[in-house]
Design a protein that fits this description.
The complex is a heterodimer of chains A (about 290) and B (about 325). With about 290 residues, chain A is mostly helical. Chain A is built from 12 helices and 2 strands, in the order ααααββαααααααα. Classes of the chains: A mainly alpha (about 290), B mainly alpha (about 325).
């Protein structure tokens, strides 16, 4: 085995892991507080990616500068989704929640297909293809930017959860909505905020999709499955587990892509293999909330 | 007398449905094709409903449809097995996979099970794309036409399979398996406490469900003469299998049939307006059903339409 190739693959995997952590963050947050498994989370990311694309094509806004706009846009979408869909099914049986969010996923995909067609689109930003050399490894700017933004938002979110008063209320509601309500927390408002925030974090992940990947209507399904593999491996609702599992997914995908024959074709299968293996062997995941 | 009358009414209704199901075969090639597809979706819808009766929501039902289609396609191309055996070969292959998968995954519940089914369908797509030696990858497999391309015989075949699916549901209901499944669906722990072997019944529902979906796939391979990974393992098939029984009315026999026919007709009409993205109707109908039609279209007809009709009749009497 080529050592240099190995180091390079691991470095790429770590960068990828940062992106996967942000992709998963919103899904994990929504599950942790509302206890809804959102099958449409990836499709919200897809909407974020298209928003970035059109902001760039039509108004010439740089993707990084478009982050606040996409964040606010998707926050609004998240609030709308909460009012229209999540609120009525908060106490519904799990299978109804799954069917509803799956329906939302199909709806958003079809809408994107009708509006923008199935073409693979890319954002042409000159600086993304630049590379930087750090000792033995060469890293693309695009991946580095994605990792930096993902890390900033993930850390920022944890800080919000830990130190802000609102974050304190979110944690209280996630532990016991009734007790929080008795103590004067407006649970409904917290649910709406969390839905908005989950979608907005997905939107930022969408910006990173636009920077590094092809944009197409089905990009969301792939990301939903990757996010599921991360939460299943890490344990639903656990943030430490999420970070660890993102590393496992990112690095193993990168290694499979680098070392197996036709590895780039098999790399998408890593997430499915993780899901099937964890569900069969250790359904509770690595860490429990 | 009244009970017997209601029972007779039901039998007449089923006979009427059967006659209606035969008619499109003789109306020309396009209605026959629509009829065959509708019957195929009826089988898929019934298949999904049987699993749903055990409280399991499959989000990747295309997995079993695809296994059914690929098993007969590969046997036909590499071993010369006649495509007429498609439903049997496809059904048995899917059922065999379901036995193994069932014991592995049915311990898990709710969202985890659904995620598992979705991942399984997507994983199969990757595997069948990768194993080019046997599946020809993204190129797909061309298969001999079913009954040499005879539409009428294909129609009779799929109608027979749909009747078989309906009979299986009735057998489950009359043998009491249905009660065990309902108990598991309502509260699995309580059902186990009452002495129901929950794993056994869940695997049974899973295997029967997989058999029917695989049989539909095995039929589809010969009928469309082409098996293509992006088609047979598509989200569109998984969501069709899911939306039709939910929209029609879960845990009944007529519900999935009503749902399959109405949603498929709506899709067929919409396909002319928007050739790509017609699946939007699936997403929309699924959300509306969950939010506003808890018992589906069947529930609406039985609880609202028929009583109001009877009321007006009484008034005029």
């Amino acid at each position: 085995m080529n050592l240099e190739l190995l180091v390079q693959a691991v470095a790429n995997g770590v960068l990828l892991a940062g992106f996967y952590a942000l992709v998963t963050l919103g899904l994990n947050l929504l599950f942790g507080v509302l206890e809804i498994t959102n099958f449409a989370h990836g499709d919200l990311i897809m909407i974020g990616a298209y928003a970035t694309l059109w902001l760039n094509r039509l108004l010439g806004i740089d993707p990084i500068a478009s982050i606040p706009i996409v964040f606010l846009l998707l926050f609004g979408v998240g609030l709308g989704v909460y009012a229209a869909f999540f609120k009525p099914i908060l106490r519904a049986p799990a299978h109804n929640q799954i069917a509803l969010t799956f329906g939302l996923s199909v709806f958003l995909q079809s809408l994107a297909l009708i509006a923008w067609g199935s073409d693979l689109r890319t954002l042409d930003i000159p600086y993304v293809s630049n590379t930087i050399s750090l000792g033995p490894v060469t890293i693309g700017y695009g991946r580095l930017i994605a990792f930096g933004i993902a890390a900033a938002f993930t850390v920022g979110f944890f800080a919000f959860l830990k130190w802000s008063k609102l974050g304190y209320a979110v944690r209280a509601v996630s532990q016991d909505p009734e007790a929080a309500s008795l103590l004067g927390v407006n649970v409904n408002k917290i649910y709406a905020l969390v839905s908005g925030l989950a979608a907005a974090l997905g939107g930022v992940a969408g910006v990173l999709v636009a920077v590094n990947l092809y944009i197409h209507p089905y990009v969301g399904v792939e990301l939903t499955l990757k996010a599921f593999s991360v939460v299943i491996l890490g344990g639903m609702g656990s943030y430490t587990g999420m970070l660890l599992a993102s590393l496992v997914l990112g690095i193993s995908e990168s290694l499979v892509g680098a070392f197996l024959p036709q590895g780039s074709g098999l790399a998408p299968g890593v997430a499915f293999a993780i899901i099937v293996a964890v569900l069969a062997l250790k359904p509770e995941g690595l860490l429990r909330r | 007398m009244d009970v017997l009358g209601a029972e007779r009414e039901r039998i007449y209704l089923w006979l009427l449905a059967l006659v209606l199901a035969v008619v499109p075969a003789f109306l020309g090639p396009y209605p026959a094709r629509v009829g065959i597809n509708a019957l195929k979706f009826i089988i898929l819808a019934i298949s999904f409903d049987i699993l749903a009766r055990a409280g399991q929501m499959s989000v990747g039902h295309a997995a079993f449809f695809g296994i059914g289609a690929y098993s007969i396609a590969m046997l036909n191309v590499h071993r010369g097995v006649p495509v007429e055996l498609g439903p049997l070969v496809g059904g048995l292959s899917a059922a065999a996979v379901a036995v193994g998968l069932g014991f592995l995954t049915l311990r898990i519940r709710g969202a985890y099970f659904s995620i598992g089914t979705l991942a399984f369908a997507e994983a199969l797509k990757v595997i069948f794309l990768y194993a080019r030696k046997y599946t020809f990858g993204a190129q797909g497999i061309g298969v001999e036409p079913l009954f040499g391309g005879s539409v009428l015989r294909s129609y009779a075949y799929i109608l027979g399979l749909a009747v078989l699916a309906a009979v299986i549901v009735r057998v489950l209901e009359f043998t009491g398996v249905n009660y065990a499944l309902a108990a598991i669906r309502e509260d699995e722990d309580a059902a186990a406490m009452l002495g129901i072997d929950t794993t056994k019944y869940k695997v049974l529902a899973f295997v029967i469900s997989a058999f029917l979906a695989g049989a539909a796939g095995g039929f589809d391979a010969g009928y469309t003469t082409y098996v293509y990974p992006y088609e047979v393992f598509s989200v569109a098939i998984s969501v069709a299998a899911m939306i039709m029984p939910i929209f029609g009315g879960l845990y009944t026999l007529s519900g999935p049939i009503i749902g399959a026919v109405t949603v498929y007709f709506a899709e067929e009409l919409l396909r002319k307006w928007i050739p790509h993205g017609y699946t939007i109707v699936y997403g929309f109908v699924l959300m509306v059903s969950i939010l506003y039609l808890p018992k589906g279209l069947r529930g609406l007809i039985v609880e609202r339409v028929i009583p109001s009709f009877k009321k007006t009749k009484e008034k005029t009497d």
